[in-house]
Amino acid sequence: MGELFTVEFWDYFGPLLLAGTRDTLVMTVVSTVFAYLLGLPLGVLLVLTGDHGIRPHRTLNRCVGWVINVGRSLPFIILMVCVLPFTKLLVGTKLGVLGAIPPLVISAAPFIARMVESSLSEVDAGVVEAAQSMGASTLQLVWKVYLPEALPSLILGGSISIITILAYTAIAGAIGAGGLGDLAIRYGYQRREPAKMWVAAVLLIVLVQIVQTVFSRVSNRIDKRLK
Amino acid sequence: MRDSIIQIEHLTKTFGTGSSAVHALEDISLDIRQGEIFGIIGLSGAGKSTLVRCMNLLERPTSGSITVGGQRLAWMEPDGGSEKLVTVSEKELRLARRDITMIFQSFNLLMQRTCLKNVCFPMELAGVSGAQARKRAEELLELVGLGDKANAYPAQLSGGQKQRVAIARALATNPKVLLCDEATSALDPTTTASILALLKDLNEKLGVTVVVITHQMSVIEEICSRVAILDGGVMAEQGNVQDIFSNPSTDAARRLVYPGGVRAEQVPASSRAVRISFNGGTVYQPLIASLAIDCGVKVNILGADTRSINGHAFGTMLLSLPEDPNDAAKALSYIRAQPNVTAEEVEYHG
């Protein structure tokens, strides 16, 4: 590991690390945003149409639940290969950062839907009922009761989602997505250069720690139940 | 007589179907008058919460009709050979609910909003402008005695304070009726008394009709003018609080009015017993002592549950009469001669 302390190592690997970190962050952030755009409404739908929801609808609830379960049952690496044609169709390439985003979104959205469902289920049914008794419409219940009351929990869920997607980007790296995971696999596994693998891995660990700390702090700060 | 504000006719509510059906409410009819404080009392599972939740259609009844403030919310319409329940449209119901607001045992405040924002909430739903809602919310918090807690969060308040915020919130849309579902059941006796005093005060100041659901007779005693007693989903009795206190005519009523009450079955079979009801005479009337002095007859008190409401005595007492038939007759006629007291000899067979 002595090479870690040489100028040559960093001259060569530094730019690669920077690019890898950038790619990982782009994949993670963009995928998270799109996955929430899909997963959040699905999670809300699950809660509203559930047996004890405010708009119970058994058929719709079971159908959405089934689709989500299918999405979650495929391991990411297999799902990624399965949707390659769709990826090509959607973003024009199967490779690189762009090619990684569609499978990441498809894989994370069902997971996020379940996270959102569990966060919203924590909202006290009595509070929802009180809002109903004041004449709240379904849309008002979602925007003014469910989402704001569950916000601290949604944010904590957000950190779990982001970290999961971050881990998936490393898997995406295995089939040519780029990013820190790709670096770790290429240098650590294919070229047997453990020092480079470890540096990439440490960076991944740091990223996860930062995400978790920031989100936990924000969640704690905005949660008025704890004051 | 004042106009009626809530009319309920032949209301039934059944949960489930077939053999697992639970009849929560059976043929309930009620007439609550404008501006009164009406109590609905019953033991757990009597159906009182279901009944109050039918009043704003949080619970959809199985059959019957509900009219609030002159507006029919649910009614029966012919459907082929039989009848089916029809309710107002969802939009009309949302509007109607601004006139029939509710407070709860668990307060149900929005935990992520300040007190002020909680009181603003129903006005937000109704589309009242922010500044106007804020101003009214401040006034309402002042009215319930929490003017200084506007920016506090519910988690920082005591139970009684939370219920005050909930009351302010319930009043935000100027309702005609305030439904209180076990609103004081989670509070200690002192806080309960202060919340009840507030409800009574608001009833007098604003003229809002208050419907109080409770399992505590003391709550009814404290603020209600009329009361309905529910027992196993059936209306056992309804009327003026004083009438029901002085002379509960059903078992359900007696159990609630005198929970530790005296039961004839517990009296030893060898003695004759008489049940005396105090119907609001003065509490300073030493009946048993004067019986002993005036008639020279000693009676044994088998049990008693009496209480004083505004200086009037209500309650029952079970006396065992002397063995001697003459003494017994003398005592009985003496008791019967007293004002505001009725006596009936209790029949039993050991």
Summarize the structure in short.
By secondary structure, chain A is mostly helical. Chain A has helices at residues 7-49, 58-73, 76-82, 84-91, 96-121, 125-133, 138-173, 180-190, 194-222.
3D structure, described in words:
- The complex is a heterodimer of chains A (about 230) and B (about 350).
- Chain A has about 230 residues and is mostly helical.
- Chain A has a single domain (about 1-225), classed as MetI-like fold (Orthogonal Bundle).
- Helix content of chain A is about 80%, strand content about 0%.
- Chain A has helices at about 5-50, 60-75, 75-80, 85-90, 95-120, 125-135, 140-175, 180-190, 195-220.
- In chain A, helix 1 packs antiparallel against helix 2, helix 5 (about 95-120) packs across helix 7 (about 140-175) and helix 7 (about 140-175) runs antiparallel to helix 9.
- The mean pLDDT of chain A is about 95.
- Chain B is α/β, with parallel strands linked by helices and about 350 residues long.
- Chain B has helices spanning about 50-55, 90-95, 115-125, 130-145, 160-170, 190-205, 215-225, 240-245, 250-255, 285-295, 325-335, and strands at about 5-15, 20-35, 35-40, 65-70, 70-80, 80-85, 100-105, 175-180, 210-215, 225-230, 235-240, 275-280, 300-310, 310-320, 340-345.
- A six-stranded mixed β-sheet of chain B has the order 7-8-9-3-10-11, with helices on both faces.
- In chain B, strand 8, helix 6 and strand 9 form a beta-alpha-beta unit.
- In chain B, helix 3 (about 115-125) packs across helix 4, helix 4 crosses helix 5 and helix 5 runs parallel beside helix 6 (about 190-205).
- Chain B is globular, with a radius of gyration of 24 Å.
- The two termini of chain B are about 50 Å apart.
